[in-house]
Amino acid sequence: YAQGRRRFAIITPETSLASPNNKAKSTFDDFRTALENVGLPIRDEWVGLTPHPATPGAGWEETREIWIANPKERPDALFVTDDVVFSNASVALLEMGVDVPRELHVVTHMSTGVNTHRFPFPISRYEIDLQAQANALVDMLQHILDGEPPDEPHLDLPAKLVMLEGR
Asked: Residues 98, 67: contact at Cβ < 8 Å?
């Protein structure tokens, strides 16, 4: 938003949506709230829900559907909330000839310190510390093994945003 982007799209696994029984906010809820906070609408045709990220091709079709939904007005920013889904979404963007980052600023998830990803174009990313995740999980499991409920059934761990610079 601070870089002048006003038309936001999101691709997220269906598993990141909060269920009626789950009081935790979902990734999609946070996205909607962020857009509302700056006075921008959320457009249904720019929301891509993928099956589980491990499903072959997850994110490819959703990326294409978002991009071709309205050729006269396309998103200028895309959030892909899963690194595996991003690998498929990036293929779709390359196949369609989308000029990233000039035409479309892409933000995706990445685990801190994991350098196995090779990005086909410049992106911004938010990084989650896998060690902090593992520590929190071990703590929760230890409580359960000790016959106690975990301190919190849902944890929000910090993320680091690494913005695309110079564009």
From this structure: yes
Residue 108: name the closest of 74, 133, 85 by CA: 85
* pLDDT tens readout for residues 91-137: 999 999 999 999 999 998 887 766 555 678 888 888 888 888 888 88
Name the residue type at position 83: D
Closest CA to 17 of 52, 62, 46, 43: 52
Distance of alpha carbon 159 from alpha carbon 27, whole angstroms: 13
Laid out side by side, the sheet with 124-128 consists of 47-50, 8-13, 77-80, 105-111, 124-128, 159-162
Q: Rounded distance, CA 48 to CA 71, Å?
A: 17
Q: Residue 44 burial (CB < 10 Å; 0-12/13-18/19+)?
A: exposed
Residue 154 burial (CB < 10 Å; 0-12/13-18/19+)?
Answer: exposed
* Per-residue pLDDT reduced to its tens digit, 25-71: 567 778 888 899 999 988 989 999 888 888 899 999 999 999 999 99
